[in-house]
């Protein structure tokens, strides 16, 4: 088992534990699902995959080195460049599995009637995140906002009557 | 200064005061200018802005807005007054003509009512009708009387000539507080008393001003409401659950909860679900754009209070604050707009949310009439935007 495999196994085991201790009595817990890591793969120097649990489905960005959880960072949003798009991830984590960044795909999970459906959706969303946009038209340079009219007189300017 | 201002009026843009006088119920020009500076003062603006109001008030192309208040607390207006992108005065001076608003208009009594009637008549089929507050229907609607008439009648009458109807706030959108059990006045939403009409709903208590302003700017720019969901709420604002964008979400994911106010978890900023947060069943963009223009984190959950579901019918003002949120069921994935949509680099989520709603503001600034809304071609408005139709 490589290091990353063992860390993903740790992630799954730990979220199973969270499910048992904290979540399974809550109405938000979908007992028909179980914790599963889907499609983890390297992107640059990080690992990305989707974590399915009975209470959420998130895309997870896992640093290749396990990093200690910094409580101050929890909840901070950051823009992460993925092949498909730049997405706003939220920093989070846990003392056991360390820090990671997550992107909410689904929560609550009540709509998923089976693990298969959830896995299928997870794979689809992950593929979507990792597929570069196909042949999109080149972004046209944004038209600059209308400039001040060149003939704005000094008098009008001083009176603040730009729109007159 | 007085002279300079007078001069500006003479040669400037306020040329059709005589035409406007009648609309103001026989005000003289001097009285009209006083009226405008009064409006400016009400909005906390300088008297110079009063002249801009005068100029803007006589500009021809801005769509008139009639704002009716029913069973409401003026919280929606208060919220709106604290918006800065654009400021309310920019909105009402440059973009719309706020012809009637009980709390903001400087006129009063018969004068204000006469002006409302006049404006509605002159702009029949073209004005934007905004309603805040729920509509009492019991006993013929006598529990909310404005100018001696049940507001129910006034709203129905005004809706007939409206190009678009906006219900602002939870009361107007689905009944809000007044409709809570036992609902002594028979309060209903605006939509409920206007069968067959489309009402764009901006729920919230108060609603985020940007959701309203963005919707109005969208209307002005494109001449049609933005994409709406099944409850007629703009999708850009009410497309996702609070829970999905919440900054406390990592704590939820990892099972870290506050169990009572002031405990260790609460002080650590843990998830508030177990003390009654309704984020998992409430659709709104509060976590993304916050309130009060002071940056992210300034919204109920951000400051440590569970979301109480103010935007959501059957949640806000209905469920006890401490009750655990129920889980909504819907069918993925087609029902969802993307939460992972492309975002500009270095742009705050708030800015993105606002821009997303007000797309094309700059483009449309020159074409302020509601083109095509009443089915008529308003050729006076900029013709460079035909592609938007």
From TrEMBL, chain A:
Residues 132-164 are annotated as: Disordered. It comes from the Bacteria. InterPro entries: NiFe-hyd_HybE, NiFe-hyd_HybE_sf. Belongs to the HupJ family. NCBIfam families: hydrog_HybE. This is Hydrogenase expression/formation protein hupJ. It comes from Candidatus Contendobacter odensis Run_B_J11. The lineage of its organism: Bacteria, Pseudomonadati, Pseudomonadota, Gammaproteobacteria, Candidatus Competibacteraceae.
From TrEMBL, chain B:
SUPFAM superfamilies: HydA/Nqo6-like. One of its GO terms (biological process) is anaerobic respiration. Its main location: other. Pfam families: NiFe_hyd_SSU_C, Oxidored_q6. It comes from the Bacteria. It catalyses: H2 + A = AH2. Gene3D superfamilies: Cytochrome-c3 hydrogenase, C-terminal domain (4.10.480.10), NADH:ubiquinone oxidoreductase-like, 20kDa subunit (3.40.50.700). Residues 238-316 form the Cytochrome-c3 hydrogenase C-terminal domain. InterPro entries: Cytochrome-c3_hydrogenase_C, NADH_UbQ_OxRdtase-like_20kDa, NiFe-Hase_small_C_sf, NiFe_Hase_small_N_sf, NiFe_hydrogenase_ssu, TAT_signal. GO terms for molecular function: 3 iron, 4 sulfur cluster binding; 4 iron, 4 sulfur cluster binding; electron transfer activity; ferredoxin hydrogenase activity; hydrogenase (acceptor) activity; metal ion binding. GO terms for cellular component: [Ni-Fe] hydrogenase complex; cell envelope; ferredoxin hydrogenase complex; membrane. Keywords: 3Fe-4S, 4Fe-4S, Iron, Iron-sulfur, Metal-binding, Oxidoreductase, Signal. Heterodimer of a large and a small subunit. This is hydrogenase (acceptor). The gene is hybO.
């Amino acid at each position: 088992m490589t290091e990353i495999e063992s860390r993903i196994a740790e992630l799954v085991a730990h979220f199973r534990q969270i499910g048992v201790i904290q979540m399974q009595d809550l109405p938000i817990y979908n007992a028909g699902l179980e914790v599963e890591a889907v499609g983890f793969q390297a992107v640059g120097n990080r690992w990305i995959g989707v974590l399915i649990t009975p209470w959420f489905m998130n895309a997870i960005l896992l640093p290749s080195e396990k990093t200690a959880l910094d409580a101050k960072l929890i909840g901070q949003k950051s823009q992460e460049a993925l092949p498909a798009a730049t997405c706003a991830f939220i920093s989070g984590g846990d003392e056991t599995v360390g820090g990671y960044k997550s992107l909410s795909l689904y929560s609550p999970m009540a709509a998923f009637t089976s693990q298969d459906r959830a896995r299928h959706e997870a794979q689809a969303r992950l593929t979507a995140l990792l597929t570069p946009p196909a042949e999109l038209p080149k972004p046209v340079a944004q038209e600059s906002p209308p400039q001040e009219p060149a003939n704005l007189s000094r008098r009008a300017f001083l009176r603040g009557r730009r729109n007159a | 200064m007085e002279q300079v201002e007078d001069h500006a009026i003479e040669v400037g843009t306020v040329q059709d005061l005589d035409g406007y006088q009648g609309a103001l119920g026989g005000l003289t020009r001097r009285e009209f200018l006083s009226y405008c500076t009064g409006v400016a003062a009400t909005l906390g603006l300088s008297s110079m802005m009063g002249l801009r109001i005068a100029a803007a008030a006589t500009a021809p192309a801005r769509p008139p807005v009639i704002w009716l208040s029913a069973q409401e607390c003026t919280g929606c207006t208060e919220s709106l007054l604290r918006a800065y992108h654009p400021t309310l005065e920019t909105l009402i001076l440059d973009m719309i003509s706020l012809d009637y608003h009980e709390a903001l208009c400087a006129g009063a009594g018969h004068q204000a009512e006469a002006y409302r009637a006049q404006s509605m008549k002159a702009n029949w089929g073209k004005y934007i009708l905004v309603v805040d507050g729920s509509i009492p229907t019991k006993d013929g609607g006598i529990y909310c009387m404005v100018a001696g008439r049940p507001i129910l009648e006034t709203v129905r009458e005004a809706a007939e000539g409206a190009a678009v109807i906006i219900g602002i706030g939870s009361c107007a959108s689905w009944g809000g507080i007044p409709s809570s059990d036992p609902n002594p006045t028979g309060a209903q939403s605006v939509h409920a008393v206007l069968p067959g009409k489309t009402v764009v709903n901006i729920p919230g208590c108060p609603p985020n001003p940007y959701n309203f302003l963005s919707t109005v700017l969208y209307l002005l720019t494109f001449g049609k409401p933005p994409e709406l969901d099944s409850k007629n709420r703009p999708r850009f604002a009410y497309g996702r659950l609070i829970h999905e964008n919440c900054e406390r979400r990592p704590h939820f994911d990892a099972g870290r909860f506050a169990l009572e106010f002031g405990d260790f978890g609460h002080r650590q900023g843990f998830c508030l679900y177990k003390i009654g947060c309704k984020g998992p069943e409430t659709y709104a963009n509060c976590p993304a754009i916050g309130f009060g223009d002071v940056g992210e984190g300034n919204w109920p959950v951000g400051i440590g209070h569970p979301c109480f579901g103010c935007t959501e019918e059957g949640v806000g003002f209905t469920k006890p604050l401490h009750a655990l949120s129920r889980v909504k069921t819907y069918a993925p994935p087609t029902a969802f707009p993307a939460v992972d949509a492309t975002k500009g680099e270095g742009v705050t989520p708030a800015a993105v949310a606002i821009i997303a709603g007000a797309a094309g503001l700059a483009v449309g600034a020159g074409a302020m009439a509601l083109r095509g809304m009443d089915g008529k071609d308003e050729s006076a408005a900029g013709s460079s935007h035909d592609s938007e139709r």
